Amino acid sequence: MSDEPNAANLFLAALADRIRDWREALEVSQATIAERSGLSVSTIQRIEAGTVDPKVTTLSALAKSMETEIYELADVSGDELGIAADEVLRTG
Fold this sequence. Notes:
6 helices, about 90 residues
């Protein structure tokens, strides 16, 4: 298995950044989102770190807890993918 970044890994990294940025824009903590969504704080942390591939049901719960829709959270632009690629390449 290659350590080379692939499209799925880049998407997950960009999605993680987008979810964290959205939460921070709302000025709420991971604990608040966990409480609202029914997810654990550690799950929120892993999603925001990009170390877990969340299920659609998990993303839906997150979106609801942040008063948005799943498609808005998953709307990752090419620029965001580029930033994620730079991050993945820099950190290995």
